[in-house]
DNA sequence: CCTACCGATCGGTAGG
DNA sequence: CCTACCGATCGGTAGG
């Protein structure tokens, strides 16, 4: 029971930290800012977390773990390469909408991870990118996709979904489904007629 | 003569600041870090610039001014809408390659501008986006482009070119021209066959 | 979970 | 352009 309460507070700290890090950056967010948001003195939060660095760590690896496990699942399906890539785009958009603050932090503030965690994170991201790129490459080889440069295609896709968080606001003219449909059309069929 | 030297130092400070802000963020870069990079004590730099905030200001508005004046030029040409949009994509990629540090700072650290400059910057960006969106809208109306959501198309394009800076390294497998060709193909014709 | 406080570092100024 | 320094704020600890 005490454990439950402790975990709730801990999760609250992590959630509020993700929002603040997204809004003001890791360096721009002080433990006193975070305490004010959580409703606690800065010093008190150290009963729930070990350090400011640890907060960033937990957020970043939570996100990268999610992407990596989902990629593994998608790789195992029997779908076409086009559909596998669509599933990955869908995953990115969905995570952006559902857990945008954490995803933003993992995208922008990962560089402030401490040395060893930084290496681990970069490696995890590289592995994810390699897996994604392999699907594109195989899709081209299978004749499903245009013969573009694989890296360019990979990063164009990753970038295109990345900024959903910055300008998409639910209930402002376009639904999540319409958003996804439009992005899919653009990436797969292009803007020109 | 004395003025010339002063301006050179000032420009050096601005250039090194852009690199450091890009690498470590505005908040993560101290005036002492910057001084070390420039070859000066932190205090000495205040003979060339007024404040750390001013450095960020100059970098951000230099970039937004460039985009806005180039957009105005492109708008006045007689080219088709597709070609105008291609010209804008070309502009973004070229600026990313030529002045990537400053562009990155304007993209990521603008939020640390002081209140009034922040408003001005957001307004400038909004104006640019409106002008870009208008070209897409007119291109759709003219039947040159697919009838996708204009905002989605705009931000997908802006995002897709934005991350060139993060992964493109000259001389590593692909030239700037090939990069541009590939991005154009993807955005205009799509990935699917 | 709070008060009180630590050493370090910050942006910036004074004075030369 | 440097030395010396300011008040403020930082992440974190001690002790209760």
Task: Give the helix/strand layout.
The structure is a homodimer of 193-residue chains.
Chain A: H1 2-24, H2 31-38, H3 52-76, H4 81-98, H5 100-108, H6 115-141, H7 150-162, H8 164-167, H9 176-189
The structure holds a DNA duplex (16 and 16 nucleotides).
Your description of this structure?
Two copies of one chain form a homodimer. Chain A is mostly helical and 193 residues long. Chain A folds into two domains: 1-49, Arc Repressor Mutant, subunit A (Orthogonal Bundle), CATH 1.10.10.60; 56-189, Orthogonal Bundle (Tetracycline Repressor, domain 2), CATH 1.10.357.10. Chain A has helices spanning 2-24, 31-38, 52-76, 81-98, 100-108, 115-141, 150-162, 164-167, 176-189. Residues 1-6 of chain A have low confidence and may be disordered.
